[in-house]
Amino acid sequence: MDSFNSGRAADRFLSPREGQSRGFPVARIVRVAICAVLYGLFYFVQQVTELLAPLVLILGVGWSALPHIVGAIGASAASADPQTRDIVTHVAGTIPRQIVIGAHVVTADSLVADGLLMMAAAALCATLAAVAAREM
């Protein structure tokens, strides 16, 4: 029989080759530990971004659509009652264009962009977690 695997049971119990170490595989354990930590980190970031990205995106789209919705209501209410028109106009004027939190300026467009970037980060972390899992 000239195949690579002879199939004999006695060959399974042969001593390791000269180049192979018989000791404790420290390098392999360190590699698996690093991959496990990276996998956990990537998976955590993926879960957080998958949770927050749709919320941030919907909040940004809603915030950008709100002045248009209130304006449409004001246009239809203008023909009904002047007091109603004044109230709707006042409400439309109180919707902020931006919110400043500390040194950060938050706008509707920035929330939409952040939501899309979070979705991209979730996809990237899912890919990196799969690569780390394969290396383990």
Automatic annotation (TrEMBL):
Q: What is the lineage of its organism?
A: Bacteria, Pseudomonadati, Pseudomonadota, Alphaproteobacteria, Acetobacterales
Native source species: Gluconacetobacter sacchari DSM 12717
Q: Does the keyword Transmembrane apply?
A: yes
Q: Which UniProt keywords apply?
A: Membrane, Transmembrane, Transmembrane helix
Q: Does the keyword Transmembrane apply?
A: yes
Q: Which residues cross the membrane?
A: 26-45, 51-75, 112-133
Task: Report the domain of life of the source organism.
Answer: Bacteria
What is the designated name of this protein? Uncharacterized protein
